Amino acid sequence: MVILTGHSLTLKEAAKIIFEGEKVIASPASLAEAARSHDAVTKIVEDQRVVYGINTGFGKFSDVLIHQGDVKELQLNLIRSHACGTGDPFPESVSRTMLLLRANALLKGFSGVRPVVIDTLLKLLNHGVHPVVPQQGSLGASGDLAPLSHLALALIGEGEVFHKGTRKASSLALVEEGITPLVLEAKEGLALINGTQAMTAMGVIGYLEAERLALQSEIIAAITMEGLNGIIDAFDEDVHMARGYHQQTDVARRMREHLEGSKLISRQGEIRVQDAYSIRCIPQVHGASWQALDYVKEKLEIEINAATDNPLIFDDGMKVISGGNFHGQPIAFAMDFMKIAVAELANISERRIERLVNPQLNDLPAFLSPEPGLQSGAMILQYCAASLVSENKTLAHPASVDSIPSSANQEDHVSMGTIGSRHAYQIIQNTNKVLAIELICALQAAEFKGIENMAKKTRDYFELARDIVPSITKDRVFAHDMEACAAWLRNNHTEVAL
């Protein structure tokens, strides 16, 4: 059981909730703070104080005063009018994360919603009722307005949800689970949609996969080194301590641990004096990606505990400020950094694949073919990796450098962070497949060199992977192997993999 406070959620806890179905409850103290904030909103309405989003229109309509009797209708109209996302829905894991993060943000007590709003979000989460949220349509400032509006529809019994393996009307799912639809009160619609939870949720899911991929890339690279008789000296601790990046030093250490006891690696001067950069510079390149991923993790763990709606209510309503915490720039930057970091893991992996299949660069059978010429072996696997890497380069263009004005130029600078998070996820999926291709080729190369001479860790990993991808004894439809291996990497949480 995870207790949400609005201040202390970690990525580790989020992963348990999202993927393992860990139940969630709200801290009573935090619910009390939320209730006090809602009381402040109620008093603002009663006193007819003019406060943005409570009794005014939105965006360019912020100067339009709303009659006291219409403040509830205002919130309902807001949700319906802003639910105009398009494209394929986010994966259920992302929708699930959005519910979690929105509830956590509202628990901070700055948003003016009733505790029942938070309770309903958590009921949907705990009962596996996941709103159908289109991926496209957010500018990443003024919050993820369109995606979060689709999320909010489910709370009021409108829109669609994924529930028990099917897509259905949210009203049906709420009845099945005994959840009462919300009737929104003052500010509650705005509080539900004015935030960064779509881009952040997509970022959380992407980061968790990227972290696992980065670790897997190292043991795959270690098997590649064995297939190529790579030189271990370049991973000596002194070399990396001399530069001073701890991530680089950590990669070198893990590589040494993976290769400990291997009879397939070499020393400088035994076969060649130096390896190519894609081998020799694994700690430097992978380490730099880890530096970027560490930055992403830091920003995500701040954002998942952040108040990102507008206005924010302080001092029991005595201070209500329209600010810009909904602006997604910090996460937009983080997503662009993650795109580049993961794309580079694929980039250097593809270069190692080339060294495994190119007979001019190794002493292995050409393209790892069992009968070079008659059978093409892994030739086109490298083509596929090259295509994916090239696509990544296009996707890695930073979304955060773009902006376009909206709401009659009231909202004249936006982050595009949700686009960045979506593209980051696409890059992660492509990189997963590139690493799967490297693993297929590395397994074959190590087999040619003699698996009895592998290190214990790489041999253990070899045996696990061979259950997924058989040895290449003749040409076959390698697309099946690539997809099976990529799926295994996505779902492989074994200790040897990490």
TrEMBL record:
Pathway: Amino-acid degradation; L-histidine degradation into L-glutamate; N-formimidoyl-L-glutamate from L-histidine: step 1/3. GO terms for biological process: L-histidine catabolic process to glutamate and formamide; L-histidine catabolic process to glutamate and formate. One of its GO terms (molecular function) is histidine ammonia-lyase activity. Its main location: cytoplasm. It is found in: Cytoplasm. Its EC number is 4.3.1.3. Contains an active site 4-methylidene-imidazol-5-one (MIO), which is formed autocatalytically by cyclization and dehydration of residues Ala-Ser-Gly. It catalyses: L-histidine = trans-urocanate + NH4(+). It is an enzyme of class 4 (lyase). GO terms for cellular component: cytoplasm. Keywords: Cytoplasm, Histidine metabolism, Lyase. There is a cross-link at A141-G143 (5-imidazolinone (Ala-Gly)). The modification 2,3-didehydroalanine (Ser) is found at S142. PANTHER family: HISTIDINE AMMONIA-LYASE. Belongs to the PAL/histidase family. This is Histidine ammonia-lyase. The lineage of its organism: Bacteria, Bacillati, Bacillota, Bacilli, Bacillales.
